[in-house]
Design brief:
This protein is 39% helix and 16% strand. By secondary structure, the chain is α/β, with parallel strands linked by helices. GO terms for molecular function: nucleic acid binding.
Length: 208
């Protein structure tokens, strides 16, 4: 079910609206067998982003001023043009043969990415049907997985609000759940979820 390379993307921005200027793009390429196999990170020049019609929102600026020095450092570092950053992302995405793209909230990260692609006259490397939302999986309680003793709490990134560190942290959390789901689908004969059975010995997930 999850046999191909997947992409996790995270953005840090100067605004939460879809036209907000992108500050940094962080992403990982991963699969169930090997985990994270490739990383992507680019800092976007804010002046150039504004020239493309992206906006800076005062409330977001105030929010950034309250964040750590390490997080703010990336915002003022030298960046590249918005179109160049997006072109680099497209090349990296295709080189890694990503089949689906994940973000913590598609109404934020993917929406801003799509707006930036449109503003720079670029075609996104993914289709709308390829987009996946991490929040959807977080809504599940995962009672069977929790019963195995697996820790589902998100691993804290090295630096909060660093696009690459956040993408890596989200990937680690997602991999635990996807690997578990993959095992369930491979054990179609499993009866552990039926009231009359407990710990089906033929099930590699619940048996024993």
């Amino acid at each position: 079910m999850f046999e191909h390379n997947e992409i996790m993307v995270d953005l840090e921005t100067w605004g939460r609206q879809p036209d907000g200027a992108i500050a940094t793009i962080g992403a990982t390429c991963f699969n169930l067998k090997d985990g994270v196999i490739s990383e992507f990170y680019e800092i976007v020049d804010i002046t150039n982003a504004v020239k493309h019609g992206c906006t800076i929102h005062p409330e977001t600026m105030k929010w950034w001023l309250k964040q750590s020095k390490s997080a703010r450092h990336e915002l003022v570092a030298d960046g590249i043009k918005l179109k160049a950053a997006l072109e680099a992302f497209i090349v990296w995405y295709r080189q890694n043969k990503g089949t689906r793209i994940w973000s913590r909230n598609i109404l934020f990260d993917i929406a801003l990415l799509n707006d930036a692609f449109e503003k720079t006259d670029l075609q996104a490397p993914y289709k709308y049907r390829d987009v996946r939302d991490v929040y959807s999986l977080e809504d599940l309680k995962w009672p069977e997985l929790i019963a195995t003793g697996v820790e589902l709490i998100r691993t804290a990134p090295v630096v909060w609000h660093n696009a690459l560190q956040d993408a890596k942290s989200q990937t680690e959390e997602l991999l635990i759940k996807l690997r578990y789901l993959d095992l369930l689908f491979k054990n179609e004969h499993c009866t552990c979820f039926e009231p009359a059975y407990e710990n089906d010995p033929t099930c590699s997930v619940h048996g024993g």
